[in-house]
Design a protein that fits this description.
Strand content: under 5%
Number of helices: 3
Helix content: 55-70%
Number of domains: 2
Number of strands: 0
Structural class: mainly alpha
Distance between the termini: 65 Å
Order of helices and strands: HHH
Radius of gyration: 19 Å
Length: about 80
């Protein structure tokens, strides 16, 4: 019984470490997949430009409207 619990906990820990490695690599280093790189660049660009985020209307469908009070930095 104890070995079975340790085996499950070890498997869960291994999966969590694998997911953490992929996320850390995608955020701070060069992503392993090209589509993850493009998604990262798109997210960085859109969150730097709140007016673009409003014009696309991507997050309003989820009820996120905090970006509507901000303007782009035109200086």
């Amino acid at each position: 019984m104890f070995k079975r619990i340790l085996k499950w906990l070890g498997g869960i820990l291994l999966v969590l470490l694998l997911i953490a490695a992929i996320v850390i690599n995608a955020v701070w280093f060069r992503p392993w997949f090209l589509n993850v790189f493009y998604e990262k660049v798109f997210v960085e660009f859109v969150f730097d430009e709140p007016e673009l985020l409003s014009s696309i209307g991507l997050v309003e469908q989820f009820g996120i409207t905090g970006h509507n009070a901000r303007l782009n930095d035109a200086s």
